[in-house]
Write a structure and sequence with these properties.
Length: 235
Amino acid sequence: MSLALALAAVLAVAVLSIHGAGGGSPAARPRSGAIAQRIAAVPTGAAHPAAHAHPAASSPGSLPQTHAYPSGSSARFKSLMSLLWAGIVRDSPTTALPAFFPRDAYIQLKAIGSASSDWNGRLVHDYRLDIAAAHALLGRGASQAQLVKVDVPSSYGHWVAPGVCYNRVGYYEMPNARVVYRDDGQVRSLGIASMISWRGVWYVVHLGAILRSTDSGRVDDPEPGQGTPVYSGTC
């Protein structure tokens, strides 16, 4: 039997099995939905999922700096501050890390030979200590404390020019913003010692203190109520 005749025979058997030969009962026939499911289950090269995958978004630190002044009320900023607060509540620096100044941005920013090591070994190290100190301040009720807002006094923001403080590019610096939260029914607050900008977004760079005499965590000016931001010009 030729290949063409063999294929014709197979097709004929399939048609008879679907429509029934000799008056077969409808209950014994495959429903069109079931047939469609079988067809859909057959993989085809044209529909491979990888063909439609989108590339991962670039890290903000991999892009060049801009002169855009950051907002203290944007959705992006509020999202980052929510992660900062979640990290404090959980004592999880990893959770809070997106709110911290990006490593790749710091490498672009600093005119020093070991910027990556400085970012990880000093800045992030201190950030971890300060997250733990803020968590300890909240005490046993940390999981119940709720973020109210982060108060950013926009008039305090100032531009730090290239060449100052070992920087090769400029940025805005924001001293002494206030994290306002509600704990056990009482409004309280603590400071963020310094935030700096990258591409129009504020990031924490020093949470508890800019300078410290011991290798320990610090909480910046914890106060009852919303507290009062105090201006200080820093790098």
